[in-house]
Write a structure and sequence with these properties.
Elements lengths: L7 E4 L1 H5 L9 H13 L4 E6 L12 H7 L7 E5 L3 H9 L4 E7 L2 H8 L3 H18 L2 E7 L12 H13 L4 E6 L6 H11 L8 E5 L6 H10 L4 E4 L19 H10 L8 H15 L6 H10 L1
Parallel strand pairs: 1-8, 2-3, 3-4, 4-5, 5-6, 6-7, 7-8
């Protein structure tokens, strides 16, 4: 069994994790979270999103957060930039990498960004052109790769089409997201097998939600398929406002625990990561969504 020796985690907690919280979160708390995460050894942190505050109120202070974080050498501080205006705002904040977001489901694309998959891909062309001009790397997301709340099952070939288009237009990496968390290990392996025919596996990442408690199993299945990059969210923060019943992203702490048990290097200090997650959970006055964090904290109590 040949598992990757090194795995990179893309920490999405400050953006994907916080964007759906109902209560206001101060810029200072967001900055503290990002700094805590980089101090724990995360080499990639998705800090915020340059979208209209009308649609995502929690991301309104992203420029201020970028201005105040303590940037560490070797750490990528990225942002979601769904349109050219968002990209220009990200550029002003000295963002070195941006992400664009497509869906593998036509119905979800319409619900999420009010356009078809093909139209969403067309919208990314000016962003890709501007990014190339300014030397900014672009990462692509594909949502609903293992099921959609509106369209049901999604064919792996449909996922491959969207991933292939994003890769062809210049996304250096394409993250495949199980938005409703309904995927199983078998379906995950099949999906990566099909997509991997069109996009090199070293350019693919996995993004799993834990709605059915299968996220860690699906990550292990992905490792067996040679995938070595995974999105995760500290304390399991996050969900999807357009996917009814979807719970949070897989907790970064739980993924690190899995990797440690497999002898796979991530460069992340689990104790510091748990402390970062617990601190933001106290700010939000909510329970920690990481099983590993809860178990470790209970031992210390």
């Amino acid at each position: 069994m040949n598992l990757p020796q090194l795995v990179r985690l893309v920490e999405v907690g400050p953006r994907d994790g916080l964007q759906n919280e109902k209560q206001p979160i101060s810029v200072a708390d967001k900055v503290r979270l990002v700094d805590d995460l980089s101090a724990a050894g995360l080499s990639y942190v998705e800090v915020g999103s340059f979208v209209s505050p009308k649609w995502v109120p929690q991301m309104a202070g992203s420029a201020e957060v970028f201005a105040q974080i303590q940037r560490k050498p070797g750490v990528t501080y990225a942002a979601l930039a769904p349109n050219l205006r968002g990209f220009e705002a990200a550029l002003e904040s000295q963002v070195e990498e941006v992400a664009v977001f497509a869906a593998a489901s036509e119905a979800f694309s319409q619900k999420n960004i009010n356009c078809s998959i093909a139209e969403s891909l067309e919208r990314f062309v000016p962003i890709m052109d501007a990014a190339k001009q300014h030397g900014v790397r672009v990462r692509g997301y594909v949502s609903c790769v293992l099921g959609c709340p509106y369209d049901g099952d999604i064919a792996p070939e449909q996922v491959a089409y969207v991933a292939r288009e994003l890769y062809a237009m210049g996304c250096y990496e394409v993250s495949l997201g199980d938005t409703i968390g309904a995927g199983s290990a078998g379906a995950t392996r099949r999906m990566f097998e099909v997509v991997g025919r069109d996009v090199p596996r070293e350019r693919l990442a996995g993004h799993f939600h834990d709605t059915y408690g299968q996220a860690v199993a699906n990550i292990y299945a992905s490792l067996l398929e040679g995938i070595s990059v995974f999105d995760s969210s500290v304390a399991g923060l996050g969900g999807c406002p357009y996917a009814k019943g979807a719970t949070g992203n897989v907790a970064s702490e739980d993924v690190v625990y899995l990797l440690n048990g497999l002898g796979i290097t991530s460069g992340i200090d689990l104790d510091k990561l748990i402390a970062a997650g617990q601190r933001i959970c106290q700010v939000l006055d909510r329970a920690n969504g990481s099983r590993v964090a809860r178990a470790q904290l209970a031992k210390q109590a």
